[in-house]
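HUMAN: You are asked to prepare a plain-text protein record giving the amino acid sequence and the backbone structure tokens, both parts labelled.

ASSISTANT:
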Amino acid sequence: MKKAFTIMELVFVIVIIGILSAIALPKLTNTMTLAYEVKAKNTVAAVRSALATLRQKNILKSEFNDINYSTIGENFSNLLSLGVKKCTISGCGGWETTSTDNSNPEFTFHAPGGDVVFKLENNKLNCISDTDICKKYN
């Protein structure tokens, strides 16, 4: 006599696997979205931290000039050792220089939840987008 699974046992296992995947898949996509948001917040924090460090270095050198676009470079390449990811597509998690005004440049961060515009003013990177989205990244 051969030992094998009956069709009922196989159907039962398939139903259980279907139920488990229906529960797990939405949680996985939610976790991925949260991970992208955390990455975005960390990128903004790294740029702000690098600006603060540059400001402190300048003070120690007795240089009190404002930090400007030529100081930090395209995509913060002069500010961070590797720069930041450059992209122009919404939601890609990268940066785009939207205004190269030397004294007050603007940068758009293409975050997963929508684009966020930052402006370099008074040696600080300030969010000038909608207040709700700015709350996320401040």
Observations:
- The chain has three helices and four strands.
- The helical segments are 7-60, 69-72, 131-137.
